[in-house]
Every structure is written in structure tokens, then in C-alpha cells.
Amino acid sequence: MRSYRVDLHVHIGRNSRGEQVKVTGARDLTLENIARRARTSAGLEIVGIIDCASPRVIRDILELLDSGHMTELEGGGLWYSSPEGGGSTVIAGVELEAELPGGCTAHYLCYLPTVAAVREFSREVAKHMTNVHLSTQRVHLSPRDLASLAHSLHGLFVPAHVFTPHKGVIGGCVPRLAQAMGSDGLDLVDGVELGLSADTYMADTIAELSRYTFLSNSDAHSLPRLGREFNVITAEAPSFNELAMALRRQEGRRVTANYGLDPKLGKYHLTGCDSCGARFSLPPDAARVCPACSSTRIVVGVADRLAAIADSPTPHSPPHRPKYHYQVPLQFIPGLGPARIAVLVKAFGSELSALHDAPEPELAAVVGERIAGLIMQARSGMLQLDAGGGGQYGRVSLED
Ligand SMILES: [Zn+2]
Ligand SMILES: [Zn+2]
Prior knowledge:
The chain contains 13 helices and 17 strands. It is of the alpha+beta class. Strand 8 (192-193), helix 7 (200-203) and strand 9 (214-215) form a beta-alpha-beta unit.
């Protein structure tokens, strides 16, 4: 067995013909660019692309299979051979907005083992939605229906960014998964995605979640954001079946580490005011008004939501829970733009190795002592952060 770096939430902007898949996604965020960049720049061995129900994306997959750039793995998943040598495994997935009986909608992820299963899934969900070509569309199915459909095709079901006020099932709809899935539907959940504004320790204040493997994924809408959160799994091979076993912690396979943003850097950590932009913390029993401008147009942050609904104020992590490592992605380091990041990737092989492994003197030789110092502080969790909220990312603070 060995370790693999895995990011299971990456969007597609356009297909290879330039047709839109995710309207807010970058133009160069194509299936092939993601597969190629996953390994060579971001340092990921497995990447989950979650707009694969779109017929525009399915056509790209079929063309890559035809040309021999991609092959279906025996254990499920798609192997992409990079022109630079090596390659990465693509796990085909789908993010959809499903609705609860009361009408509240949230995002859910399904992952499928084969291209045949992806096509079947796409045909089925297309009957319940307006536009299957675009990313993360509303489907007139319940999350439970979606989970059953994924499982009927030997797929996996994972509620996405569960705590976010924007389309997270626990953050925006119901305080417990059992209310969304039905108590006998909890077995249909294969893992829980934490989202950028929460970490393991915040999530482990809810007892219902302790049975699940947590996933820290990037939710990337552009190539530089690949791997800004990722998971390390221990498995025999980079295949779909091995990933499924890791999520279910079977036969020694498991997620052995989560790497994610400090939740303070997430867009929804603090409560934010839509009217004046103020960010603040709102005690559970306080009125939902902005302390700065008295507006009631506020977005309750993940920290405040969890404080209000938690079973206990402190986390109770189960023995299987791996460590959550905080990382400040290079894009957040003040003074590091795309050009210097490219230089770091060239020097150290990937953004992740520059961020986590490169020795300080070698970093300094490439980007200077000041930035090398900031990267070292990021690595040890010593950077001061201004918390994000209300849809604005947090920032590295350079003031004392
Ligand atoms: Zn989403
Ligand atoms: Zn306000």
C-alpha cells in the first residue's frame, strides 16, 4: 500500500470545443488541462472532476478514450497519460443541487466508476432537470433519490461543503443529515465534504458525523486552485474501487490525512452582512441583525452555525479520524503572483512540494528571503489571518 494525494471536487469551465459547462469557471479549466495539471503542477495523483454528467464533458472523455490519451482502469476510474510522462487518475463525478421535501436545496456529489455508469447517470438525471449541459444544476430529486441512483450504478454519494450557508445541507437546510436522508438513509452517505470554512474539529462537534470519513476538497473553479484542499489516502492503487474502500475504511484502506485551508480563510467562516460588508460573530441567541448597520440581510457563518447546532462545544473525534493539516495555499501568500508561483513549480515540481517540503534556503534562492519566510510561517501555522465571511475569503495579515 502507498499514499495518494486526492482532490475530489474540481469543476470544468469549458469543454475542448469551448462550449460552456460552468459559467463562472475559467476558460482553460478543461478536462484535459485538469488531468494534466493535477500531477505536474498541483502534485495530485487522483482528481475528482464533478461536471461529468454534462454531455459536453462526456464527449471529451470519449474522445480522449478514442485517442488513447485516457484509458478506463480495471478498478474503475480513468487513467490520463500526460504528454510530460506519468499521469493521473480522473474520478468522474457530478455535483447537483437536490431538494428536500420542504424545498430547501443544497449541493451533493456523486462519483461513478465507469464511463458507462456516467452516461447512464446523465441520462437518468436529465429527466429531472432543465439543463444537463451545465454544472451543478437543480435536479427535481431528493438527496436520498440521488444517493440511491449513484449506488445503483456502484457509485459513491457525498454531501458537498455541508456547513456552508450557501447550498450546504447542514449549513443552509437542516441541522442533521438524518433529517435530509431519513435515518435509514444515512447508510447511503459514503463521506462528508467539510468545505473551505470548516475543519475536522469543528465538524466533530456533531455526533451524527463521527461515523463518516471527512473529505477536504478544493472546489476549484480555476486551475491554480487545484489542490488548495486535498486528502491523502492509503490504498493499493489509484483506482475508483480503492478510493471507495478508503472512504469506507475497508481492509486497511483509509484517508490518512486531510489538508485544508485554515477555516478562517474560507469565505463563510464568520457571519457577514450583505448590506455593509461587515464580518462578525453572532452569539446563538442574538437577533439576526448586523451590529454595524442594523441590516437583517446577513449570512450566518459556519462557525456561528456550528456553535448553534453542535451536540457539544468541544470536538469528540472518533479513533479513525486522521489529523487535519492546515495549509495556506501559495495564492494566499502576499507578494506571490502567478509568475512567481510558476517559478516555484518549476523549481520544486509542484505547488504542494514548494509549500510543504522545500527547504527554506532553497526557497529563498528562488523567491527571496521575505517570501521564503512567509512560506515557512504558512507551513508551521504561524501566519496571522484575518477571517473571511459573507462570501469574502480571509487573508493573510501582515500587521502585528
Ligand atoms: Zn457546490
Ligand atoms: Zn451591515
